[in-house]
Amino acid sequence: MKNTNTNIFYHATKELSTDAFIVWLFYFLDSDNRYETAKQELFDNIVLKEEDRGRPVSKISLERQKNNVDVFLSFIFSDDESEQVVLFEDKTRSSYHGTQLEDYKNKFPNCYRYLYLKLAYINVEEKQYVSELGYDIVTAKMISSAIKGCVTLHPIIQMYYEYINESFINLNNSFHNKLFKEQDYSILWGDEAQKYLCDIIVREMDEQNCDYLEIRNGTSYGRPWTQIDIKEKEYDGGSYWEKLFWRVDIRSDKFYIRLNLYSEPKNEYEKKLKMKHRDSLRQKIATFPEISNLIVGNVTNKGVKECEIVIFFLEDNDLNKLIGSIPSITKQIANFFSKLKWLIE
Known about the structure:
With about 350 residues, this protein is of the alpha+beta class. About 40% of the residues lie in helices and about 25% in strands. The longest helix has 27 residues, at about 155-180. The radius of gyration is 24 Å and the shape is elongated. It starts with 14 loop residues before the first helix and ends in a 7-residue tail after the last helix. The relative contact order is 0.08.
């Protein structure tokens, strides 16, 4: 790895820096006929639809932060003078929020393409959601491939190329070896590695025909967590609900995968009911044959909203065996959970 101290992108890591680089790059490659081949390659690899690749473009114009959109790219196809607009939504490590992507499409319904540029790891659920909304995903690997041939044209291109390869592509490519070969679970201090691990788990769940609701992630006291929601149930006409989910997190410097029961009891009856459900789920899961093949950690009784049902510390278990067991455990416990009752007997 080259000295990162003299690479401006290691000091300007925010999304606005990538926005600025994209705008500058298109203008730079359009500024001199000597760069025409590099410009066409950039358009072919990133901007143009497959059926339009190779068509010459001209009259390039870009706008940043227009109506909160990160970048608008306007150009014409030189062969028929047709005007085109491409909308870029740029994410470095964050994800979409709310109805952001839908709103952009509603405000600007006639764009040539809608591009969702994500440098960090993009998990299966994010890919599916973005694609269903009609956005085409542009990854760090795609950007790297598109600019590789023109890194010698300007130091800024060289710096950005080195930055995304070292900070994103090489990092993303390291997740599998770190987790499954080196057993270096410290990589899970990063939320992208956690998303990768949860993607592996849901892929195994799909293969074993095990349903799940969604993958979610967030932070707690600045520490990332990622979870797979598997079952939710309402009681008393919807006034009280409970949810089961698997969570990747850390306790006492040891990463784990644990099954949680979550709810927000509003009174003593709901609290008493939840504790009864927690104990019933713990007793039931202990009888599953898959559990006997794994090393189970000690659950805690801390917390009212979030209760631990079972916990597996990664360094105590074979990760492949653990992931292979999760779908069966999930199906059995979700079935038992669905039969829990509102009344305390």
